[in-house]
Amino acid sequence: xxxxxxxxxxxxxxxxxxxxxxxxxxxxxxxxxxxxxxxxxxxxxxxxxxxxxxxxxxxxxxxxxxxxxxxxxxxxxxxxxxxxxxxxxxxxxxxxxxxxxxxxxxxxxxxxxxxxxxxxxxxxx
Length: 125
Ligand SMILES: [Zn+2]
Prior knowledge:
Cytidine Deaminase, domain 2, five-stranded mixed β-sheet, 4 helices, 28% helix, 22% strand, Cytidine_deaminase-like
């Protein structure tokens, strides 16, 4: 946990959020302990913005990783609960007991993916 939070804080400076000024960093950890960091990347055409969580997940998938244990989402600007789109992307690759940690400067909250997205869309159900 401490290591993930430290890594997240180190990457705040890489966030690209000139429109919202809401910095978000996600650190995704694989079951084998590898870590993938994502930051939010905004765009002047707002709909093209990609959240930090999806950046981290897509980086990991692109590197051949598919088994994830947890994600820490950190912001110094507010409580960075994952949006609905990111929750659904997590559901694509992660089990229901995947841990989602939401962190700010002074609080750390922990949830399972099942708690955050109880009825995710899934073609196999
Ligand atoms: Zn999102």
